[in-house]
Amino acid sequence: MGQLTPVEREVLIAVVDTAVPALAVESDPTGFWGRCGSDVGAEVVVRRFVEGLPDQRFDAVRQLLATLDRLGIRHRDRTGREVILHRAPAAGRSRERWRCRAGGWWPWRPAGAPPPHPDDVDAVRGAHHDR
Predict the structure, then answer these.
(1) How far is CA 31 from the centre of its chain?
(2) Which of 66, 68, 125 is nearest to 100 (CA)?
(3) Which one of 13, 67, 111, 119 is most buried, by most CB atoms within 10 A?
């Protein structure tokens, strides 16, 4: 059984709080909707589950958490975290493979990276024809 590092725990909290966000609801006298996943201890349950996984699966989850951390999930607001989680599957794949699967545009680029050149997109699509 493994143990998550403090940074991995922070990433896990960010994921849990993205999956179970606090919502601003006008009529919420008990504050139920205003609590996020970590407010109710969901990250503790998920952490215990992850730390109880067999070594190979635990290591795979740690790799996923490391990827999410490299993408900056701990330092983003809810919308930014949602975008990261939506695009995370592409982070571990080759750029060319994802350009082809996404019809010429890959779903993830490092912050500040320009989009692909239109000629590259056409080459990936195989759309070389007179215009």
Answers:
(1) 27
(2) 125
(3) 13
